[in-house]
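Q: How would the structure tokens look for this protein?
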Amino acid sequence: MSFISEPHLLDGPRWAGMRIGLLGGSFNPPHAGHVHNARVALAALKLDYVWWMVTPQNPHKFNGDTMNYAERIAACRALTAQHPKMLVCGLEGELGLTRTIDTLDMLKTRFKRTDFVLLTGFDIVQTIHTWRHWRDIPELVATAHVARPPALDLVKRAPLRRLPVRNRTVPDSATAAPLEPRNRFYLLHTRMVDLSSTKIRNSTE
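A: Here is the predicted structure in token form.
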């Protein structure tokens, strides 16, 4: 259980100088794969915390079996209860934000002195070009993608390669590399959790 309260709109100074990972998604439902990605990023990038950014509605996923927002928030809190450096964040729900670019704009305004890195699974490397204003995302924050060999070979065909970067970093041990915009991290890890929210939903039908 975390001994620090979840972030809210008016407590920007509390997070000043911290390194925060942003793990976004529907979390419908949250699962061990999400925890795994957060733990890899915490260790590899020496993050202070990972915020689980629960979206009220994924603009790429419209289906009738989505748990309501309160249920997904509660499920995330239950799953992260034993991980004190993982905090569930409901700011997107409070503000009605559903696009990553809008969320990042809000965070950079409200938490001016916090260093953020957007965390994703490696699948996002292949699909981020479908997001609104995707080219602007790495101009706002560093990005990091959890992968395992030989997944990096897929980068050669990914639209993400079109974007300019300051640094492409593949840390093989803990690092405190600057979380600066246009820094892109590929977090290699040999153990991966073969889970997805879709698989879990399908298995219960």
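Strands lie at 19-25, 49-54, 86-89, 115-121, 142-147, 167-169, 183-188.

The first strand starts at residue 19 and ends at 25.

Upvote if useful.
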